[in-house]
Each structure stands twice: as structure tokens, then as C-alpha cells.
Fold this sequence. Notes:
Radius of gyration: 17 Å
Strand order of the largest sheet: 2-1-3-5-4
Oligomer: single chain
Largest sheet: 5 strands, antiparallel
CATH architecture of the largest domain: 2-Layer Sandwich
Number of domains: 2
Order of helices and strands: EEHEHEEHEHEHEH
Strand content: 25-35%
Amino acid sequence: MSLIFDAVDGPYLATKITDFLVEGKKYYEEEIPPYIEWKGEEVVKINIFAPMGYDFSELEKDISARIVPCPTVCYDVMAKGISKQTGIREMMKYYGFNEDDYMAFGDQENDWEMLENAKIGIAVKDIDGSEKLQHMADYVCNAPRKDGIYTFLKNNGYI
């Protein structure tokens, strides 16, 4: 298992490199950050790279957080009650928009709440995209590399 902490000043590897990390980083096409000893910097996001289907139930109890699967072998660690959807809701409220009047695109289970609560939720087909997400979404579009989002917006009169 490997951990990457996204701190305010950038990402860093908090543990040794594992095969899971190498596999997961292929999906994101990003470099593996260097190992840096954590010195108390504010962490805004944690990613765990572990086997698909890993049981995090005990860890979730210990750290009072939710661990949500992302593509391949990556998992997002989020404080309970926090998700992409709660972030969107706060931004909508801040700018004076109706909190539920947004359109969202997503391709993985970590996008579930965001799509479920959007006025229009669009699942994006991808190589490792979640089929469950595609079934619950209002619409499904092709992957960005196939101009899926652009095509959806154009065909539905948004652009």
C-alpha cells in the first residue's frame, strides 16, 4: 500500500513505492512525487494505492473518514460528510446560485454523490469507467479523448 499526500505546497509520497502506486499512476499519467518526510504541512487530500476491493472498514473507523474507490487501484480518503458534491454545494452557495442547479460529469464511484445531486448528471465512459455510475446517471457521454464532453454539450445546445 502507498500513500500520497496532497499538501498546500504540492503532492508528496508518504510511503514506499509499491506496484499498486505504479499501476495507479499510469491511469493519471502523472509522475510519482518524491518521498518527503511529512513535517506537519496542511494536507488537503490523501490518495491510497492498494489492491482493488481492499477492505478499509477498520481504517475508516480508526480515522473517522470515508475511503472511496477511484479508477484502478486508487482510493480517495475524505473526511466524513465531505465529497465533491459538498464542495460544489458550498461554491454554489458562495456565488449565490441555487445549490442544486448544476451539471456534473464523472467517470468513477468517487463522483457518485456529485452526479446524483446534480440537476443533470452525466457519466463519462472511460477505459475503467464505472458501469454502476453509467446506470444511475441522467446521461452518458464518451470519454474526453473522444470529445465526449464537448459533443454532449454541443448536441444538447449548451455551446
